[in-house]
LacI family DNA-binding transcriptional regulator
Amino acid sequence: MDKPSPTARARAAKRAGRGAVTLSDVAAAAEVAPITVSRAINRPESVSDALRARIRAAIDTLGYVPNRMAGALASAKTGVIPVIVPSLSNVVFVEVIEGIQETIETRGYQMLLGSTDYDLDREAALVATLLGWAPPGMLIAGLRHLPRTATLLRNAGVPVVEFMEHGARCIDMNVGLSHYRAGAAMAEHLLTRGYRRIGFVGVRVRDDYRACQRYEGMHRRILEVGGAEDVLFDYSGGVGQDIGWRALGDVLAMRPVIDALFFANDEMAVGAILRAQRDGIAVPGRIAIAGFNGLPMSALVTPALTTIISPRKLIGRRAAELLLARIAGERPGRRRFDVGFRLEVREST
Amino acid sequence: MDKPSPTARARAAKRAGRGAVTLSDVAAAAEVAPITVSRAINRPESVSDALRARIRAAIDTLGYVPNRMAGALASAKTGVIPVIVPSLSNVVFVEVIEGIQETIETRGYQMLLGSTDYDLDREAALVATLLGWAPPGMLIAGLRHLPRTATLLRNAGVPVVEFMEHGARCIDMNVGLSHYRAGAAMAEHLLTRGYRRIGFVGVRVRDDYRACQRYEGMHRRILEVGGAEDVLFDYSGGVGQDIGWRALGDVLAMRPVIDALFFANDEMAVGAILRAQRDGIAVPGRIAIAGFNGLPMSALVTPALTTIISPRKLIGRRAAELLLARIAGERPGRRRFDVGFRLEVREST
DNA sequence: GCGCAAGATGGTAGCGCTGTCAAACCCTGG
DNA sequence: CCAGGGTTTGACAGCGCTACCATCTTGCGC
């Protein structure tokens, strides 16, 4: 048999070896040095038109896809940014993630997504694994972590943005809103409207640190007012609207004195409103209902839901921008951003 | 100055170099060969207890995190599985993703998430980039891709599962349901109930291939019945409930003969129901409403929504399992799975 | 026509890890 | 006390790519 053609050789290598066309294959096909191919790909302007064309042709015929591992290893630049959130089922995180995605993608980064299911041990494990990708930075939801997680992150020597809630102590940078103040604001509103027995409804509130803070903010404010009191309803399973639906029934049956319910999120609150509709319970006449997040749906139910609007997409974008700026070597003046919130008073209170 | 100690050298390397503790640093600290550290991490049983303990101690004190790039490059095993979906705003994809995540995570894989925003060119670009991670397999939503995307995928020489819809022609493997049949099933139901002027409401239906198929399935069935007809309402912007809300208004005002609306998803359908509630429009008396997906919410609105339940999490799990099996070298008997759907008739039709 | 700067290309080494095979070690039975 | 087998440890090379520096070309002013 005679000498195989370059194409045939490439194909053989592809099948036999690790199953991929490499930069050297392209170089051989284009009859240039490997490094030139690398340049043609990464800084096209530094290669002459003629060569660039020849190389691109070779790339196309061979179907070459650069191996990013090798590139990352050689250049110590990863192009992957890990994002850690507690849950994907919650729309809220998804919106933040979208904000992040939009922002980092235009700058050529890829998102590595991890979810902890509100478990701090899993979070620590996840951080360790993801750090293994030698990322240029890291985005992680929340300010509360295990000590070892914080240590890992600090030692990694890369910028870290903790997003969602705003607080005094952060590992590196922080973008979010004060859930404590949000809770207090809602309490204030409900008290002003004359409600005095207020229930807070959540799921696994102990684990959901931010919901917990909203409750605390509310609780503190209510304590300050004579004759007012609150109750915490902490469900352990279920999701969103189902919980709200159930909770409304439970509360009316078992704690009829309650005159207002502040739900940990809009989904639950909407569930409660739908239940009220179905069962003919007057809202806010018999009981007031409030939510948190400001999902579009909250404006569409009848009665329209009083809620606190959180700028979720903004959090994602801001967090990503901050991280990218730091990765690019800039030193932003501020490391902590309070994106704020807005109390949207509607018909349900 | 005299020669720096290994430890000092390691520390210096850490600060100066790439900013990370390497396997060699650990080896130096534990006074063993690098390869032994590698073994202690990857196959602990093949290292004596004494050494293993010493190595683990060194790892902990130094805060070593293995560099997965290097590992992947050396072993040609990646541990990253790319997942490509058209959108993250749609809960449906999120649920599928959760199913995938759950499944691959327990097997030590990480998910690399990409979203195309229903743009096939972006999809092609994304596939190319993600293939650069030399993944052991790939999960991609949908069966319709650009020819060059399919070529890339086929040439990559790794298993690929196309999920969401079920169809005859797939690149490698396929898990999903027939949207065409789902549309036909809903048409059948509406016709049986006596509706004859049926509208289909979607957003960017041309791009949303699956919605399009549902419409086609419905359309075909309706054509078969004398005196029945359908109209396609294709909105170009907005999301979920807002669209449904608007669409109901538009249809009643501009095409009052329409007696039933089949929405591209439950979110829109619920939006329409909420609008009907608010405006006192009788559903299904004045107009029937149906959705698609079977979100929990669909059962809670009044009237409860007739919809088609799609097994989203199952799709994710099944797709991931199939892929993992193939990655593990198994040859599953079947390459295409129809997970089916269920028409859930409720009050709104 | 020559010298020099700027631009285009290539050679070499090494990123951090693991596969492969070789060497060193340990224990047992005769 | 030693051969023989298994177990534990190590040396070496190389994964695919890029940083760095060296070399070669080209064009231009004087």
User: Anything to note?
Assistant: Chain A has three domains: 6-66, 78-177+313-339, 179-309.
